[in-house]
Amino acid sequence: MNRLDVEQLNSLLSALYDASMDNHGWGDALDQLKALFSANYVTLILKMPDTQAEDELGLMVSVGDMQNSGEVVYFPYRHNLTPFTNQTPDKVFTVDDLMSEEEWRDSPYRKHWCACNDVYHVMAVDISTPDSGTLRFRITRPESSAAFSEDDKELCRFLLPHIRRALNIRNLLDRSQVMGSLYSKAISRLSIATVVIDESGQILDENVFAKEILESGDGLKVVGGRLEASYPSDNRELRRLIKETFEGKRTAGDKTLPEAMSVTRPSGEVSLGVVVESIPSTAWAEGKGQPAAVVYIRDAVGKSQASNEVAKKLFGLTPAETALSIQLANGLSLEEAAEALNIRRNTARAHLRAIFSKTGVRRQTELVRIFLNSVAALGQGDQEH
Prior knowledge:
The protein is of the alpha+beta class. Helices cover 42% and strands 21% of the residues.
């Protein structure tokens, strides 16, 4: 196997695991592999394009004398010419293992893709991963360089588990971020404001609904970067809730219970509902990092974010009936809803009778309840602010 000193190995592994945490790090990792193997290009194909879909693009990161070197980029791949398909996963191979030199020289793939980029010698491996399928790893040299040796292949095999782990960590983090984003969007679509705070009440993060509520200063506000209530009595109670949340005083068995309170609004509107819940730290992070809690805020008079299209499908309503239902769910009376929609009261009453018939309810309050408790709001697109 090629000699790889401790300093080189440490630098390369650090770059690989840094890349697993941040996609911008793949350029450095592949550059180090390029130097290690005296290559002109090193490419990691993260996703092959679907050849059946005309507009489908693949995803790769490559380093070498090229545009976007070291960046994760989308790429087209319209020619199904590669001789490297259907290889045994995790088996390092070279062109010499697949065909004769004459066959390689005559290969349409080499002529179309490789010759123009001074690529002749190729060492490759299709890396299997638990959740991302097979990822393609390619190292190339120009014709003027020596072919890849058995020592080169052995070194590649030695590094393969580390490359696979880095890719798997990246995939797990991506999945976690996607799920976190999905849950955050779901909470926003339900018109629930969320604020992440530290032990002193300093705001660390907030969603768009929280930003609206805090900017209005009606019940809750930001003072010196801290979350505070408008009235002193409410503010003392909020401080107490935050303190007890971090101390974990309210428990049921081995679970810490969230704290809750009602916050009076100077405008006279219905009070804000507030729940404070601690964000548990991992067992391995004891005493490290910044403790945090999440504050959930619900504005009872906030407008419904129900999607018209989803509501129509859920309840079998016409567009006019859906519009009326949403106005009623927003707290308007039938007369106020008719005025807001610029329709006659008799028309609104006719719509309401049809809505009752289709939804199986008999009273307006029941209609509001089923609308607010339905999944209609989750069909709303991302909020624009």
